[in-house]
C-alpha cells in the first residue's frame, strides 16, 4: 500500500489513460462487435432504461455522500461514494457493451434543429464532464484508499472531491436528459 500511497498522481494518470482509451476505442468503432458476447435484442434495448435507473440512483448516492461528509459521517460518506463509483462502472460497462454490440451510438430520432441546437450540445457537455471526472474520481478514490480518514484533511481529497462530485452530478443529470430525449420525447 505504501507504493500506491506514494504514487497516487501517477496511478491516477495511468488508470485515467487506460480507462479513456477503452472508452474512446469503443466510441470510435475500434472494438469490433465480435469482441463482445452476443445478446438478445431485448437485452440491448433494455440497457438505456437500466442505465437511466443507474444514473438516477447514482445522483442519489452522490448527494447522500455529500450530505454525509457535511455531517461528519465519514463511514456513510465512504459507503455512498464507493456505491456511486460502482454504479458509474456498471453504467459505463453496460453503455460500452451496447455501443460495441450495436456498432455505434443511437441516432437522434427527433428534428434536425433540436438535434443540432439542443441534443448535441447537451450530449457534448455530458460527455465532456464524464471524461473530466475520470481522473478526478480516480485521484480522490486512491487518496481515500491509501490513507486513514484522519490524514485526508491534509490532502487535496476534499477540494478535488467537491469538484468531482459537482461535475459528476451534472454529468449524470445531463445523461438522464439525453436518455429522455432519445427514448421518451422523440
Automatic annotation (TrEMBL):
<dbReference type="InterPro" id="IPR007352">
    <property type="entry name" value="DUF420"/>
</dbReference>
<protein>
    <submittedName>
        <fullName>DUF420 domain-containing protein</fullName>
    </submittedName>
</protein>
<dbReference type="Pfam" id="PF04238">
    <property type="entry name" value="DUF420"/>
</dbReference>
<dbReference type="InterPro" id="IPR013833">
    <property type="entry name" value="Cyt_c_oxidase_su3_a-hlx"/>
</dbReference>
<feature type="transmembrane region" description="Helical">
    <location>
        <begin position="163"/>
        <end position="185"/>
    </location>
</feature>
<feature type="transmembrane region" description="Helical">
    <location>
        <begin position="49"/>
        <end position="67"/>
    </location>
</feature>
<keyword id="KW-0812">Transmembrane</keyword>
<feature type="transmembrane region" description="Helical">
    <location>
        <begin position="117"/>
        <end position="142"/>
    </location>
</feature>
<keyword id="KW-1133">Transmembrane helix</keyword>
<feature type="transmembrane region" description="Helical">
    <location>
        <begin position="79"/>
        <end position="97"/>
    </location>
</feature>
<keyword id="KW-0472">Membrane</keyword>
